[in-house]
Amino acid sequence: MTTPSDVVFSPAVKAIQTARGSREGYARMERRGGWRAEATPDLAAFIAQQRSLFLATASVAGQPYIQHRGGPPGFLRVLDPETLAFADLAGNRQYITLGNLSENPRAQIFLIDYANRRRVKIWGEARVVADDPALLAMLAPADARAEQAIVFRITAWDANCPQHIPQRFEAEDVAAALAQRDARIAELEAEVARLRGPAA
To answer: Which of 9, 90, 119, 128 has its CB surrounded by the most CB atoms within 10 Å?
Structure first.
C-alpha cells in the first residue's frame, strides 16, 4: 500500500476506474496526498456530533455484515489521531460482529449526517476490549450497560459529496426548533396585545 486510498482502490477497482475514465482524477488526488490515515481536527469535530454509526465487518470467508450503533453525540470517541472507540452495549446477543472481529479485524465505519448532507467512510481494523473497566466507564453513555468496547484503528478515511443524500432531521432538533418558534410567536402576540391595549 503506497497511499491510504489503496486500502480500497485495489487493482481490480483501479482497472474499472481506468475503463470508466475516473482513474486519472483519483491518481491526481493520490499524488496530492489523497485520503488521510489519521483523524484531523475537522474529522474529530464531525465525529463528536454524530449520534449513530454503521460498522461493517466480514467473516474470514468474506461474508459481510453491517451493524448499527447509536448514542448521544460524542458516543464515538477519538482517543488519538489514529484511534476511535465506542461502547458496545447489550443487544440481541447474536454476536456476529464479535465473531467476525475474532477472525478478521478489517472493518469500516460509515457516518452520515442527514441534516447537513455529509457522509464519512473510515477504513481500518477493529478489536474488542472487554477487560478495561476504565475505558468502558469513559465510553459508556449514562445509564447504559457496556458489554465491551470496540477500538478502531484508522487506515484511511474519505468524506463524500452530498449527492443523493436525503435531508432529514433528528426529532429532538425539530422539537427544539418548533419550541423556539412557538416561544417567539407567543412573545410577538404579547407585544401586539400590549400595543393594541391603549387603542382599544
So the answer is: 9
> What's the CATH architecture for 36-168?
Roll (2.30)
- Rounded distance, CA 162 to CA 59, Å? 31
Q: Identify whether the C-beta of residue 135 lies closer than 8 Å to the C-beta of residue 129.
A: yes
Cβ(149)–Cβ(139) under 8 Å?
yes
Can you give the three-state secondary structure of 61-120, one letter per residue? CCCEEEEEEECCCCCCEEEECCEEEEEEECCCCCCHHHHHHHHCCEEEEEEEECCCCEEE
In the chain, residues under CATH classification 2.30.110.10 are 36-168
| Reported pTM | 0.82
Contact assessment for residue 63 and residue 69, using Cβ atoms and an 8 Å cutoff: no
Beta bridge partners, 153, equal: 83, 125
Express each pLDDT in 163-172 by its tens digit.
777 778 888 8
CA dihedral of residues 59, 61, 63, 66 (deg, nearest 10): 20
